[in-house]
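Feature request, filed as a ticket because there's no other form

It would be nice if the structure record came with a short human-readable summary line next to the tokens. Right now we just get the raw output. Example of a typical job, pasted below so the devs can see what we mean:
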Amino acid sequence: HINHKIFQTTPTRTTTTNIRPTMLASSGRILLRTATGVGGRTALKALTARVSTSSFGVTNASKPAAPSVSKPFFSQFASKSTVASSELKERDLYDVSKTFTGPDACKVVGIDKLGITEVPTIYRNLTYQELFDHEVANGEGWVAAAEYGDTFAIDTGKFTGRSPKDKWLVLNKGSESEKNVDWNNINQATTPEVFEELYEKAIKYFNTKEKAYVFDCFCGANPKTQKKIRFVHEMAWQQHFVSNMFIRPSSQEDLDNFGEPDFTVINACSQVDEDWERHNLHSDVAVVFNIEEKKAVIFGTWYGGENKKGIFSLMNYWLPMHDPPQFPMHCSANVGKNGDSALFFGLSGTGKTTLSADPHRALIGDDEHGWDEDGIFNFEGGCYAKTINLTEKTEPDIYRAIRTDALLENVKLNEADGKLIPDYFDTTKTENGRVSYPIFNIDGYHKPQMAGHPNHIIFLTCDAFGILPPVAKLSSGQAMYHFISGYTAKVAGTERGIIEPTPNFSACFGAAFLSLHPTRYADLLQQKIEKHGSHAWLVNTGWSGGAYGVGERMSIKTTRSCIDAILDGSAEEAPTVKDEIFGFDVPTSLPNVDPKVLDPKQSWEDPDEYDASAKKLAGMFIKNFEKYADKGSTDYTQFGPKM
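Raw output as currently delivered:
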């Protein structure tokens, strides 16, 4: 049952929680139904109206794609949380939940300062068990019978990835952000007036709600640069998502002393901007950040990643502006038993999450990190992994992390013996199926979430042309060239409109999240590499034996063998040949790797066709890098390919 810590805002009246579940027997299973507090259905109806296709296949044609809180749904499938005793300690350490009810609930929590004053019930930082109970009681999704434990699953409607063309930054005239932001088609400018209209719309909407979910958290494990972030959501699963992804308060004292947040995100995802044309936006979806006002609003998209990546873009603004400047990174990180740390740069779908989840090393984090005078540190408190073709054999850590407290997004569920079983191979809904989970779902994760300066820096690229070798050693100059270039391929499903791998240059392996000019970050990386002597490598997780459509995707086994060779030092000692066009050193022999794969030209049936394609790719690199010539502290053009 739901067991909240209830706080009255008026001492003369006894209050109870807004949701009172009733336990009902159904085929030997537990049934949760709300006796009161069905306001969550309003938001749910908005979601079902926006769902274009169902990912689950557990509803018939006469029913909406998303579930409603109804007896047929809950009586058909088990809906209780299963928690192994070994997991209880870790998850129960996060226990700072408070529920506020009454006319002053908003004031007590502090969201009255945002203009939200009329919500009578506020759920602040619910525990994982409470989140599960709310998700089930509100009918926000399904309980999936994952192999390692029941896992809540949701459908985000037609948005199964970020909507980058709908993200905006407010251009405040005369401000610091106006001078420093790299204004372009990624950091799109909108006006303070547009933001104010959307902000007022979001506030007005929340003031009609019977309840709201408020989550106060931290971004950045190093206290020196840590940021306090507040999220205001309308559904429990959204708080679940940010609880997984950000650093949770470790004690009640952390929450009591939270004070004013450094930034607040108000997520009114069930609402849309009907005036988008008048606002000069691209659609009725709007994700708008105002750096000076320290606020953001989200309209029209249910995709959880908008919360996560929006704050990452802010960290990419804040940290380089710090004194002394710090280096934010779109990378995963892990650490060996001897304290040797490694960074894995790469865009979505290149293997950051998969390759950093190493059974022989401790995971620091899978996506966002910082590098300062003390070493590297995680921005987040969890992981956000792709589930496409996921098996325990190929990715054991991620597969086993899908258990209680994880949250599945847009993953197909098949009914079997009264249970809903995840099917990671069915991509009918999207190839960007995801799972978010708290870092403690990874066995043996690195609890300090910080480590020393990295021994190895690995640039992951998904080469759709099949030209680049599975591994190459880079000089410091080449490292900077490839970092700025950020060559990879956009992988199907990670953004709207992408249905197959598309060649793409993304500066710093994360152009979509860079708030400043790419050379600002490149200069910081150059300083770090020179000071700490880190080794740099290029690893291709893309195609071999031909381009996409002809060759085959590099196997995870091959890529892991290359990574192992880097981390154990054998790649450093291996014999190499210099690539005639790109100039980097390519190992000719590595343990457990086919020599023909190491030499991509040998893997092609037609060597002449390979040469022609290699020159074509080199030309793309050269053309792309023209915009960075004579920018920053050093012109790295000299370290690129030679025609």
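Something like this underneath would help us a lot:
Residues 607-625 form the longest helix (19 residues).
Residues 10-87 have pLDDT under 50 and may be disordered.
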